[in-house]
Design goal:
37% helix; single chain; binds adenosine-5'-diphosphate; binds magnesium ion; six-stranded mixed beta sheet; four-stranded antiparallel beta sheet
Length: 266
């Protein structure tokens, strides 16, 4: 059971979303006042600044904003890959900022799917081995057929034994999607999943993110493409680490318009 009382500092828009989109029991990821400051040799960089948001099962959220607005840092903080400087993050009931590395590793294997460019495929392993790896680590190896089925679903049935360096960027991204499909994670975190893909790979990635959402995952996806964002249920907009706007179910034109207006709203 997710504790929801920690979401109460969420901004008005987040509360509105809660009212519109379902019960708080459905929240699988909540961010409450999340802030991250990178200490650099020059001035500290406040990459994420007091962000609050709730993400529910079976919903797909896009995150947009200019380059450097903190989108990737926010995703990394949510997954515990970076320890946020302040705030509260609850992922499937786990307090991510307080959890031990060991707990976080288990959480990421069991409950999180990552679709990051160039992230997380093991170079020495085949596509098949990469897809099966989290379950194997977890002591619950997946059946070979399930692994193959997931790779076939993303159109890589003929690449089972290929290693990442023999795959295109789009194919690697599809391996990452296949791995998420197999794990049926509570939360899927994707950083520009269609960023550099050919159209065929992009279509497969979007189709399978749709499937993961329909199967109950909460999908959180950074994109710079309004057409891609329009596949999501809502789009959140970041500027200078701050959440400044939200559009529910917008068309590509609405989303592009909001993006163009961001500077004047900041
Ligand atoms: P986005 O994904 O929206 O392009 P990032 O989250 O990558 O933005 O970066 C947000 C801000 O934090 C930027 O100003 C960036 O330069 C800074 N930043 C990101 N990673 C680091 C780091 N490891 N050390 C210092 N500053 C960083
Ligand atoms: Mg980024």
């Amino acid at each position: 059971m997710v504790e929801t009382q920690h979401c109460t500092r969420a901004g008005g828009w987040a509360r509105d979303a809660a009212g519109m989109q379902g019960r708080d029991d459905d929240v699988v990821l909540s961010l409450d006042g999340v802030t991250h400051v990178f200490e650099t040799e020059a001035a500290p960089v406040r990459a994420v600044d007091d962000v609050s948001a709730a993400f529910r099962r079976g919903t797909w959220t896009a995150i947009m904003g200019p380059s450097g607005s903190g989108k990737s840092t926010l995703l990394y903080c949510a997954a515990g890959l970076i320890r946020a400087t302040a705030g509260r993050i609850l992922l499937d009931g786990v307090d991510v900022r307080a959890a031990s590395e060991r707990r976080l590793t288990a959480l990421r294997r069991q409950r999180l799917g990552f679709v990051f460019q160039d992230f997380n495929l093991v170079p020495a392993l085949t596509a098949e081995q990469n897809v099966g790896l989290p379950a194997r680590f977890d002591g619950r190896p997946a059946a070979d057929e399930a692994v193959r089925g997931a790779l076939e679903r993303v159109g890589l049935g003929d690449k089972l034994r290929s290693r990442p360096d023999a795959l295109s960027g789009g194919q690697r991204q599809r391996v990452a999607i296949a791995r998420a499909l197999l794990a049926r994670p509570a939360v899927v975190i994707a950083d520009e999943p269609t960023g550099a893909l050919d159209s065929r790979s992009g279509e497969v990635v979007l189709r399978e993110l749709t499937t993961l959402t329909a199967e109950g995952s909460a999908v959180v996806m950074v994109t710079h493409d309004p057409v891609v964002a329009a596949h999501a249920d809502r789009t959140l907009f970041l500027i200078d680490g701050r959440l400044v706007d939200e559009v529910a179910g917008g068309s590509p034109a609405t989303i592009a318009g909001t993006l163009a207006d961001l500077d004047t709203r900041a």
